[in-house]
Amino acid sequence: MKNPGNIRVTTIPAIRYVDPDQAIQWLKTALGFTEKAVYRSPAGIVEHAELVLGNGMVMIGTSGHNQQTAHWFVQPHSVGAVTSSVYLIVPDCGPVYASAKAAGAEFMQEMETKSYGGSSFIVRDPEGQIWALGEYDPWSKEATSE
């Protein structure tokens, strides 16, 4: 079905972590996310968490907690790679870059200016997920008019 342009769709990445509490803290400290909600099992396991950055969100869960779906996912460290990454659009990379540096983030790509617009950098979180941050916004008027 082709989207006729009047259907509103929101995309929210959902990532599972072995230690979601560590991931939540890292995302808050290194990249500036804030907690919207964290739902825990009676045993204290993170079943579902929602973190917000600007008008974007990422959902976090505990790897292997849901036995029905556990076999669908693999952790980056177990295979040495990821099959996707998350791109976060930020108005100014400088402050987020400084926060990531201060948090000891592993940089896959240092901050640089891109030929298609804005600065960007790429980091890997403690469990191996890759996060790209950039000022380039493909939804901006300038980007869509080219």
Helix content: 10-25%
What's the shape?
globular
- Give the uncertain stretches in residue-range form: none
Mean pLDDT over all positions: 88
Name of the CATH architecture: Roll
Strand tally is 8
Protein name: Glyoxalase/bleomycin resistance protein/dioxygenase
Domain VOC: 8-136
GO molecular function: dioxygenase activity
Keywords: Dioxygenase, Oxidoreductase
What order do the helices and strands come in, and which of them pair?
Layout: E1 14-17, H1 20-31, E2 34-40, E3 46-53, E4 56-62, H2 76-79, E5 86-89, H3 93-102, E6 106-113, E7 119-124, E8 130-134, H4 141-144
Parallel strand pairs: 1-4, 5-8
Antiparallel strand pairs: 2-3, 3-4, 6-7, 7-8
What descriptors fit this protein?
146 residues, 2,3-Dihydroxybiphenyl 1,2-Dioxygenase, domain 1, four-stranded mixed β-sheet, 4 helices
Can you describe this structure?
The protein is an alpha/beta fold. The protein has a single domain, classed as 2,3-Dihydroxybiphenyl 1,2-Dioxygenase, domain 1. Helices cover about 20% and strands about 35% of the residues. The protein is built from four helices and eight strands. The chain has a four-stranded mixed β-sheet, with helices on one face. The protein is globular and about 50 Å long. The model has no long low-confidence stretch (mean pLDDT about 90).
